[in-house]
Amino acid sequence: MRETLLFVLLTGLITLARADDCQALNFGHGSVVCACNATYCDSVGRTGLPDPGQFLSYVSSKSGSRLVKTQGQFQKNSTAAALRITLNPSQKYQRIKGFGGAMTDAAAMNILSLSSGAQDQLLRQYFSTDGIEYRFVRVPMASCDFSTRLYTYADTPEDYDLQNFTLAEEDIHMKIPLLQRAQALSAEPLNLLASAWSAPAWLKTNGALIGKGSLKGKPGGKEHKTWAQYYIKFLEEYGKHNISFWGLTSGNEPTAGEMTNYSFQALGFTAETQRDWIALDLGPGLHSSSFPQTRLMILDDNRLLLPHWAKVVLSDIQAAHYVHGIGFHWYLNNIAPPGITLTTTHHLYPEYFLFSTEACAGWNPLDRGVRLGSWDRAEDYAHDIIQDLNNFVTGWTDWNLALNQDGGPNWVKNFVDSPIIVDSSKDVFYKQPTFYSMAHFSKFLWEGSQRVGVSFSKHTSLEVSSYIRPDASAVLIILNRSEEEVQFEVWDQTLGFLPGSAPPHSILTLLWSRH
Predict the structure, then answer these.
(1) Are 212 and 261 in contact, with CB atoms under 8 Å apart?
(2) Are 375 and 506 in the same domain?
(3) Has residue 114 been placed in a domain?
(4) Please, where are the H alpha helices in 263-363?
(5) What is the pLDDT of residue 2?
(6) Residue 410 sits in the same domain as residue 456
(7) CB 94 within 8 A of CB 391
(8) What pLDDT score does 14 carry?
(9) Given strand 24-26, what is the order of strands in its sheet?
(10) Which residue ranges in the chain fall short of pLDDT 70?
């Protein structure tokens, strides 16, 4: 007790006890998962602002902390910490759109494999005000590898008018009901984002949904027009279920079907053919449809293709007129520095937003599949998100919302990891460390939050990103990937000095009112 009191006196931090702590399980992968069932799940709860002059700190760490909340006091005088982090609100950068994950067929199947109580619990964890408040959901248009079968919505050959276009059972009985439930839990409208993996086989040069193949004919021709109308039909059919889409991408990973003989669904485009299809078919089609406000993102492929892909598409005035943003994936990021790819693209085309549309752990063949409790993967997420946000990215979307313990189902056994892993045999789900990585951003960076400048009194291993939210409160997110605890102070000229400490291998979110 004396040690606890001494810690409080020295740091000014008070840990706020919670009745809903993580039910930790250790599977031997470096840290713990939090187990949840129909009647119990840890929850961060609602995050109000502390009183003026106070700050809140939320920490998750390799040692097992999960969004542990403490409260402290700004000080008038420096704490004499070796590292001072200075907030520079006058340096203003991009505004945040939000964070989320994907409602794939596999995710929907896994969620629905649980009892109704556990399903509700899982959806609350992602979407409710007591959960981590995801605002974005990516929805594949028809099947992808995270399906259990191959299908599109227009598999009738030569149906150029799409008279036989129909949503699948996976949409009607799985994805749509879950999206409706997620929306009902969310305090704000969810932003849905649609991506197609493949056109119907009869529209493609290789006559198959998989492998190397592109649309028959040329942009402006009947196949390209039909493929554009397919997008509009999809929006119409979902609209009949009272589900509207914030945005679309021009197609998932276009280089997969263009440059490689992919083992699962793909549709090849070069930057040039994507440009011309948007200019002649998809752009005008959307513009003249009931969905002219739907945001269109190009690329939806690895960021190492930037800025080249953006230059090709956006230097064409016709195509550029219909485009709103640039979507990209995180795979192979280690060979594509963000300054060269993202910041260069932003400076070339500042009016087009940058948005990370897909990421997952466990995709690498050297470290494939589910790792229950992996803290390394949590750090990979936080590192990538901070790096992206510090290079003008406006949002970050995870891949599958939930997978089974194999990392599927996936019809080509392309198993990966997910922030939530479901064990339907026990009617439980496990919240991975990556879930809490996402939480440190999605819970605190509201839409409209603006990244601002931050500077350091000396070189540091800490990775930091800072924001002013629409209510003028400040958020600072800090990743410590080192083995050492790092003491620091934050200098906010309106309030003074915030005394802080980043434990070894931890993610920290600091929140305070600047009024």
Answers:
(1) yes
(2) no
(3) yes
(4) 271-277, 283-287, 308-314, 317-322, 338, 344-348
(5) 37
(6) no
(7) no
(8) 55
(9) 24-26, 32-36, 428-431, 420-423, 403-404
(10) 1-19
pLDDT, tens digit (0-9, with 9 covering 90-100), for 375-397? 999 999 999 999 999 999 999 99
Q: How much is the pLDDT for 259?
A: 81
Cα 506 to the center of its chain, rounded Å: 20
Is the Cα torsion angle 14, 17, 22, 28 positive or negative in sign?
positive
Q: What is the pLDDT of residue 377?
A: 98
Q: What tokens were used for 46?
A: 């609602």
Does some domain include residue 49? no
Run of H or E including 7: helix 2-11
Q: What is the C-alpha to C-alpha distance for residues 103 and 193, in angstroms, rounded to an integer?
A: 10
What is the spatial distance between Cα 327 and Cα 47, in angstroms, rounded to a whole number?
30
Same domain, 83 and 108: no
Separation CA 53–CA 497 (nearest Å): 10
CA gap 6, 203 in Å, rounded: 71
Q: What does 167-231 look like in DSSP terms, one character per residue?
A: --HIIIIIIHHHHHHHHHH-SS--EEEEEE----GGGBTTSSSBSS-BBSS-TTSHHHHHHHHHH
Residue 210's contacts (CB-CB under 8 Å, 6 or more residues apart) are 150, 198, 262, 263, 264, 265, 266
Decide which of 442, 465, 496 is a domain's last residue.
Answer: 442
Domain's final residue, options 401, 423, 442: 442
pLDDT value of position 15: 52
Q: Which residues are catalytic?
A: 253, 358
State the CATH number of the domain containing residue 76: 2.60.40.1180
Domain that holds residue 500: 2-25+54-95+450-512
| Cα–Cα distance for residue pair 414/400, rounded to 1 Å | 12
31 touches 504 (CB < 8 A): no
| Cross-strand pairs, 492 | 496
The verdict on residue 39 lying in a domain is no
* Domain identity same for 78 and 130: no
Q: Which of 385, 420, 370, 406 is nearest to 126 (CA)?
A: 420
Phi, psi of 325 (to 5 degrees): -155, 180
- Hey, which bits of 378-505 come out as E strands? 393-400, 403-404, 420-423, 428-431, 450-456, 463-468, 474-480, 486-492, 496-502
Burial of 67 (0-12, 13-18, 19+ CB in 10 A): buried
- Same domain for 434 and 469, yes or no, is no
Instruction: For Cα atoms 184, 190, 196, give the angle at the middle one, nearest 5 degrees.
Output: 120
Residue 191 belongs to a domain with what CATH number? 3.20.20.80
Q: Are 269 and 277 in contact (CB under 8 A)?
A: yes
Tally Cβ neighbours within 10 Å of residue 376: 16
pTM of the model: 0.95
58 and 178 both lie in a single domain = no
- 8 and 61, same structural domain? yes
Q: Give yes or no: residues 346 and 247 share one domain.
A: yes
Compute the 3-state secondary structure of the chain and give helix, strand, coil in percent, each to the nearest 5: 30, 30, 45
